Amino acid sequence: MTFWLTGDESADRLLDENPFALLIGMLLDQQMTMEAAFAGPRKLADRMGGFDVHRIAEADPAAFEELAATPPAVHRYPRAMAGRIQSVARTVVDEYDGDTTRLWTDGDPDAATVLRRLTALPGFGKQKAQIFLAMLAKRRGVDLPGWREAAGPYGEEGVLRSIADVTGPESLASVREAKRAYKAALKAAGA
Q1: Has residue 1 got a pLDDT over 60?
Q2: Rounded Cα distance, 12 and 22, in Å
Q3: Which among 8, 11, 89, 175 counts the fewest CB atoms within 10 Å?
């Protein structure tokens, strides 16, 4: 299973080959288009000569902010997100010895355990963690007991609801429309 998340072959390959890059793409997926968010790790990798969790965790914060803010920036709020990226990197280094996959493999966990681990990461709320959990199952083949229940609405079968369901331009358009409809419904309910 290879990813199609950005429409850029090199960015998608990095996400496919580097679990930390995928995790950071998910972190960046807010207040910008999905494909731009998931292209962020490639921008950093190009500027750093690779995408290594240890190098990111240990980078000088001011210098890393500059890397993130250099046009084209990795996010709408590149300096704030640079801090979050480094916080996630330090967590992965400190708690998982730099191996991102240990978030979903350590101790043969069930999906509820992985969801707790994800929500403990800086910048990962419940919804973001549920979407990433669904992505692991749907797009990476990570079979965690109870993943559909733990992923909530993002675990539903046959529904195009989030980046976890994107496989190409057509599904991206469908997910984007579903997100628009969801936001419109929320707005209408609040009005």
Answers
A1: no
A2: 9
A3: 8
Tally of structural domains, the chain? 1
Range of the domain at 80: 9-154
Determine, yes or no, domain membership for 126. Answer: yes
Residue 51 resides in a domain: yes
Give the CATH number for residue 117: 1.10.340.30
108 lies in some domain: yes
Note the pLDDT tens digit of each residue in 135-144. Answer: 999 999 999 9
Distance from C-alpha of 42 to C-alpha of 12, rounded to nearest angstrom: 8
Report pLDDT digits (tens) over 144-174.
999 999 999 999 998 899 999 999 999 999 9
pTM over the 0.85 mark? yes
* Inter-helix orientation angle 19-28/78-96, to 10°: 140
